[in-house]
Structures
1.
Amino acid sequence: MTGRLPSVTGTGTLLRFALRCDRVRLPVWVAAGALLVTVQSVSSQALYDTPADLAAYAASVGSNAAAVALAGPPVGLDTVAGAVAFEISSFVVVVAALMAVSTIGRHTRADEEAGRTELVRATRVGRHAPLLTAVLTAAIACTATAVAIGAAATATGLPAGGSFLLGASVGAAGLVFAGVTALAAQVTGSPRATQGVAGAAVAAAVVLRAVGDVEGNGLVWASPIGWAQATHPYSGDRWWPLLLCLAATGALAALAGALLDRRDLGAGLVAPRPGPPAASRALTSPLGLALRLQRGALAAWTVGLTLLGLVYGSLAGSVETLFVDPQARALLPDAASLTDAFLATTLATTALLAAAYAVSAVLRARTEESEGRAEPVLAAAVGRPAWLGGHATVALAGPAVVLLASGAATGAVRAVATGDGGEFGRLLAAALTHLPAVWVVAAVALALFGLVPRAAVLAWAAVGYVAVTTLFAGPSGWPAWVDDASPFAWTPAVPIEAWRATPLVALSVVAAGLLAVGLAGFRRRDLVTG
Amino acid sequence: MTTAISVSGLVKGFGSVHALDGLDLEVATGEVHGFLGPNGAGKSTAIRVLLGLLRADSGRVRLLGGDPWADAVALHRRLAYVPGDVTLWPQVTGGEAIDLLGRLQGGLDPARRAELLERFDLDPRKRARTYSKGNRQKVALVAALASDVELYVLDEPTSGLDPLMEATFQDEVRRLRAEGRTVLLSSHVLAEVEALCDRVSIVRHGRAVQSGSLTELRHLTRTSMVVETARPVSGLAGLPGVHDLSVDGGRVRLDVDGDALDAVVRHLAGAGVRSLTSTPPTLEELFLRHYGEDLHEEQTPAAVRS
């Protein structure tokens, strides 16, 4: 292959090296996907072990707009296996998509920015070899995810054919986002912008799929996640939608390869403009620097979650008219409307995303430290608390901004739709109710940063933990303390539950304590670079 | 003479690796002090301890009369630092980075900033992402040199600079010395240290192996001589401090220890010197003796104090 195509010479060697570099990272992603499916399969089989249980479940979620918006099309709910696929597929697809985005991002523009690609390309390596290596690495990871999910689901007793189709659909959707990221890497100006654009594409796919499934229009076909779920594992087992994924991946990767020839190494197609020759007054303090470094991410998350808030707000209007199954209404608390139940779920989901943003903001401090950029700042007249305080402020105030914007969007849409101006304030307050729980997750990341800097990235495990316990709190079969350990479990599920101050104050105190631990740890330890 | 930096018995380890193993360092106020050593000798680690970025395991460290770990912020107002490996924020322009670091340090002189940008030929509007290594180095240099402080800590500041810019840098350091500022200049570029430094400390394997003025250090090295005499010389081989002797009729080549020069010259004078070329030792040779001759390592004097 390499003999006839000189532009990809060296791909084999590079691929072996890339897999070696990712020998821990990729198996963790793959295992996370397989673990989600395993947990879901085991707990669903325990919960719906009689046909009556299963029928009740199918009736309730099939008519629950929140469940459909979060999970996908309510098909195949007449079997436990179909219920498992319904519950878990949309989450595992996002895991695979994020794995693909980060893998391509690291092996393309991040390597270029660090100067590693230059070193490699100066040897007998073709121009397209690094890009092809990145795509192949992501493809291997997606294939491994597909096989692992298929094997895990089969091992828990689900039909093998459907299990491997479920895995293949997840892997295939991941591949499409590998292609999207490869394309973004050619166009955008920096590695962060590459990951940002690709992440936005994942978010857009999630939203398009949710709107399409709730409204029942054709919008799901605009989303690769919709294609993956159109395979209907365990109920019909359609393999043809996978061809859509493969065709899209091939087209995106080919376009990326063509654009690669038109850009310079380390630069995107979008040419950078000269910047200001002097710093503005805003860039004077450690907080000013943290804001400057993180403003792009904050803006992106704010825009993204505002759009999500608008979508959730408008979907809430459809809940009452589209899903009027009396059986489903009977399952809900008396006073609560279906709409409020829907909004409680979507607000919690938004808060989970805000927690993910908060952790990424804290880890920005770690990146600054490990890449040596904290050193010149701390060698100036800046103390450790001031430096970390700058990033901590962004990580704590940023989620407040994001939740405020998202809650305001949902509230505004509901206020207009219902003609009740009070809805705006009510839903804004409901969104902000989740803030203390988000702070606890951010503070866990800060404590890890202060105490064990090299392991700070484990804060993502905290995000995964609260996400799994929050999203699967209902059907889970695990002990109560597993749920109770999550700060999200202590947050009142407004607006279906009443607002209570005590747990929110307690969560804020816990967050403050963890923050203090992180600051104290950082003051005592060495600066850890590399 | 007051002391700007005083380090004794400094130990710093990372896991099982001993980066600093009892380092001693004295820098007097107002001097340009060379901090010499091969890669991995522990120079950058020592500087990071001096800046309070790393915490000493043991030993005594005083910087401008304070404790660099406990009084870091107060001390940093009085010093400026150029890291050995300058990494900048990719999306921030060079001019912004200079202003930011200058402001965080306590303010910089706008006129000096403009002058230094001119002298170092640096475009402040480009984003750090597009800078070469040398240009990143210039950003850190401009930010440090435009600061009005007592102490300049420069960790291999000329790496990546072209010879013209190195000359500019040397001018700037001479200017600092003329103003009575203190400079700690870490380097493995010997010519730079010879050109700029009043005194030198040589560090290897985390310990100072020699310290003193360049004159004092030259006493520790050998002078190479080529001598033509009227009569054949005899008995040279028997003199102490004579090495690598070769006699070719009336032409003699030899290396002489610094403290044996007097005796050797007297001996040669007896044979009627017709011509004499002597080459003073360079720091290269000094380095070679410490790092090239492993066999003689044990006999190396631990430290020579001034």
2.
Amino acid sequence: MADLASIERFLYREADLLDRPDLDSWLALYTEDAWYWIPAQEDQPDALNHVSHVYDDRVMMEIRRRNFVHPRASSKDWSVRCSHIIGNVRLAESEPGEVIRVRSNQHVVVHYREEQKLYAFTATHELIPTGDSYLIRSKRVDLINPEAPQTSLVIYL
Amino acid sequence: MQPIADRNFDALVTPTKLHRSLYTDPTLFELEMQRIWGQAWIFIGHESQVPEPGDYFTTHINHNEPVVLIRDKNQAVHVLHNRCGHKGAKVVENRSGRARGALRCAYHGWTYRFDGSLQKVPNEKGYEGTGFDATDPCYSMQPVARVDSYRGFVFASLSHTAPDLIEWMGGARACFDNLCDRSPEGEVEVAGGVLRYEHACNWKFILENLNDTMHPMVVHESIVKAAEAYIATLPPEAAEQRKEAEIIPPFGASYEKFEDSGITGFAYGHHYDGGKTSIHSAYSVDPDYHEAMLAAYGEQRTQDILGFNTHNVLFYPSLTIKCAVQNIRVIRPISVDRFIVESWSFRLKGTPESMLQRTLLYSRLINSSMGMVGPDDLEVYRRAQTGLASSASDWVEFHRQYGKDQVLADRVVGGGTSDLDMRTQYRAWKAYMEGSMQGLPDHG
């Protein structure tokens, strides 16, 4: 039986790294075969046959992380700070095996270009226990308004 | 800023300079909505978005007029003003869907057939002897003045005097043919959803940027370098499988490569860069797709279709298409410093799923508000919007290769790094604003 308190502590740690943001340490929480997904449709069934805001595997996450700190990325000249609030953490049904599926409701305030934007979503993490902690096999971010016009977002939620 | 007389557009647009008020003046924006967006053919949607009778898609034809694209019971596709003939309430509120039986106004229950004609007014006897005539078209959901489509792409114009769509498209029409002919069945359909990206700047910045080939190696340097550097660390067999390796690095192509791709301009402000080559021309071809194309068209015609490689095609002012990628972006203005870009993707009918999947990969990498390219483009538009508030100068310039454009019968051609695209669209801008529309080139 997965220990909900240790899962919550892990989600807070992930959020803390995104809040700073410290993408180098954040990416170390993900497995080599991980993916990160922000669908562009409610209950979007798949990431390949419908467009998404983001659908990165580990390679694209590595590229995005390097772009994020590149001195010639002008959209990243502005500092980005975030504040995650995580609640309603609950275990979701999962296939038998090593992976733990956990859902949480998250509200993230993103400060960028001297504006604050609020993102609200359900996060679905697939976690793999590693001794005293976890690694993230996948993270799906279901925005409450996936089909609304979006403004530039230059950080993972 | 000096006040500009309403009709003195010579003072705003010269062959090599634009007045900054084009980007910042709200009254000029209102005039643009009347004279450009109120006269030109505006892209509304694709027929495949409304496959069955009663299927509808709602949008705006300019910054504020709501319209609905709808298919009637005889399969005809209409673009109607989305306004009840009674008290003016917007009739169809959802973005898209399928109406059952009739369209019904939520206020007093007036119902309309799918062709917009008034079907039923509740408690009709109150109108007896009042002079009200339910068959008078002014009480229907009225059609937009002109509606036409080309290979499924539906345009509408608020102007009864707009030229025919075919004439208006001119030589740029070949790009619709190329997009559709890339399907072995010669047809495309909207697939895989839409991305909507809010831009806090003037709508013209994105049009100017489409074929501005002097910006990619600067604005997109970071993502090109980041992608190239990381992909180089992968084992060769893993690197080869990365479609990103085909899509991202060409944004860093050299000035020479972009110069070779050329720019072609047409009447009414349309233009494209590329032709023989573009940043999309080195994409790998799926063998199953290639086989289907050969079976449909034969060797030579297949080569011709796949060898015509434009990068961005602009149908001024509302639609830009990427034939080789099968996606389009639609411009929806809101105010002088705000607009929405919609990115739609197309399935080439009769092709493997991998083709649509590449299109969608492209859209999320490049066009997404959370993508690798879009946010850096928007960043520089916003800096221009902010910088143009400066009183240091009233002008932005576009001299590149001025005087070197080659004027042919129906088009103007020039170097890929020239400002030919600027000259083309601002000739049309000025013509529309002065009321003459066409904006044909008048100098060598």
